[in-house]
Design brief:
By secondary structure, the chain is an all-beta fold. Helices cover about 0% and strands about 50% of the residues.
């Protein structure tokens, strides 16, 4: 199995940027497709972005397309989420997740391992 630890969250003004990281340990990172999800207070956890095992395929929620970029460095066992042009509605706890296999997916139920989350707060 793999252990995931997110970092990089914080408080930022609208229009600002943050870069989230997810450090993986345990089983070889490169065997997992990865995803980012978020959960705002009182709302269900939702898909943000996903990336295939090798990094060649990426998917984004419509709400973040053009503003967020998912990437991974398999040599460093790390997943990233670059978030630009942040909006107050991006405020949430952000989670990284791992799925054993090649293919990335937007389906939350297909992910096997989860981090503890990192808080992102965007002020207006």
């Amino acid at each position: 199995q793999v252990q995931l630890v997110e970092s990089g969250g914080g408080l930022v003004q609208a229009g600002g940027s943050l870069r989230l990281s997810c450090a993986a340990s345990g089983r070889t990172f490169s065997v997992y497709a990865m995803g980012w999800f978020r959960q705002a207070p009182g709302k269900e956890r939702e898909f943000v972005a996903a990336i295939s095992r090798g990094g060649s395929d990426t998917y984004y929620a419509d709400s973040v397309k053009g503003r967020f970029t998912i990437s991974r460095d398999n040599a460093k066992n790390t997943l990233y989420l670059q978030m630009n042009s942040l909006k107050p509605e991006d405020t949430a706890v952000y989670y990284c997740a791992a799925r054993f296999g090649t293919r990335a997916t937007i389906r939350i139920q297909e992910y096997d391992y989860w981090g503890q989350g990192t808080q992102v707060t965007v002020s207006s």
